[in-house]
Amino acid sequence: MSRSSRIGLLIVIAVLAVLPFVLPNAYYLDVAIRMCINAIVVLSLNMLIGFAGQISLGHAGFLGIGAYASAVLPTHYGWPPIAALGAGAAVSGLLALLVARPIFALRGHYLAMATLGLGIILAMIFRNETAFTGGPDGIAVPSLGLFGYELTTEKQWYWLIAAMLVASIWATLNLVDSPFGRALRALHGSEVASQAVGVNIWHYKVAVFVLSALGASVMGSVTAHYVGFVTPNIADFFHSIELVTMVVVGGMASVFGSLVGAVLLTGLPQALARFEGWETVVFGAILMLTMIFMPKGLVPTLTARLRRGD
Predict the structure, then answer these.
(1) If you ran DSSP here, which 8-state letter would residue 228 be given?
(2) pTM: predicted TM-score of the whole model, two decimal places
(3) Total of domains in the chain
C-alpha cells in the first residue's frame, strides 16, 4: 500500500469516527449508513469495471440474491440470519462462476446486454415468486444478531457498517497492489498483450466477477437486515445503473473514487426529493457529462490536475 493510500485511509477512518457526533439527527445518520453500504458495493464493482475493464449492467441482481436469502431463509425455514447471509453469498458466487465464462466471451455492447439480461432475469424471479418473496409487495426481514446481540439502533448499525467499509477499503487497496491487481490492470489494458506475457485472462475474469458478486450479495443481506424489509426494487435495472454511475463519476480504477462516487450519488436523491420522478434524468445527465468532460472520473481527474499544478 502506497503512502498516499495510507493517508487516504486514515482520513476516511477519522471522518467515519467523527461523523456520528456531528450529524444533527437520525435521518442524516441513516443517509450516512446508506452511503457506506453503497461505497462497499461500488468498491467491489469497481474491481470488475474499473480495474478489469469488464462491464456489468445487472449487478443489482446479486444484491437481490443476498437480500432475499436473508429474508426468505429465516422467515420460511428458520435459518439463523448469519447462515442465511452466507448461503446468499454462496449462491451468488456459484451463479457468477457458472455464467462468467460464457458472458465474458462477449465484447462491447454484447457483453453489456448479457449482464443486463442476467439482472433482469433475477429481478423477474424476485417479483414473480410471490409465495416465497412476497412479490411486488416485498417481505419482512428479521433483525440481525451477532454473537447473541441484536442490532437495533442506527448508531449500532453505523459502527458495524463503518467498520466493514474501512476493512473493504484496506482489503481493496492491498488487492490492487498485489499480483492479482496488476493482472487485472494488464487485462484492462490489452487482453492480447496480457496473454502474451502469460496472464490467464479467463482465470482473472472469472475470479474478479465472483469476488464482485460476493461483495454485492453480502451487502444486499446487510441492507435487508438494516431496513427490515426488502422489495424487488433492490434488484431492478435502475439500481444497477446507479451503481455503475457511482463507479464512473467517482473514478474507474480508483479506490477512493468509489467512495466519493457513492457518497455523492447516494446523497443526490435526498437533495432531489422534492423533484420526485426526475432522479433517472439527473443520473443520466451526470453520467453523460462525466463521460464527456471527466472520462476518468472525478477523483483521478482532480488528482491529475493537482499534480500538474504542483
Answers:
(1) S
(2) 0.93
(3) 1
